[in-house]
Amino acid sequence: MNNEDGFTLLEVIIAMAILGIGFAILTQGFTEVNDGIEGNSNYNYISIWAESKISELTTKIELNNHGVFFYQNNEYKWWTVEKHLDKDLKELILYIGWQEDGIEKNYSIKRILIVED
């Protein structure tokens, strides 16, 4: 009777296959999370930039109503639209548009302003 402890070749191959599938799933999950973090970083930058720009527009530091800026090799176009709500109020909307992975993306921010004579 030959009673040896150890694993057979078949058991080792099955274990390697399970580990390979597990590593493939983990790698895919890691890349998706990393892409999500990068996307959130861009969105955070754009939202902070938009807050700053709309403050410049409302205080008349910025006199242009459109322009372009660059961040992480992307071109972002911005423009404003003013809507008069009534004789004392107007709405200022700042739009930002860009291309990301071939998809058109947009961001907007609004402020209600008192019209000064």
From TrEMBL:
Domain of life: Bacteria
Keyword annotations of the record: Membrane, Transmembrane, Transmembrane helix
Keyword set includes Membrane: yes
Pfam name, any one: N_methyl
Presence of the UniProt keyword DNA damage in the record: no
Cited InterPro entries: N_methyl_site (IPR012902), Pilin-like (IPR045584)
Transmembrane segments: 6-26
Ranges in a coiled coil: none
Protein name as catalogued: Prepilin-type N-terminal cleavage/methylation domain-containing protein
Gene source species: Orenia metallireducens
Source species taxonomy: Bacteria, Bacillati, Bacillota, Clostridia, Halanaerobiales
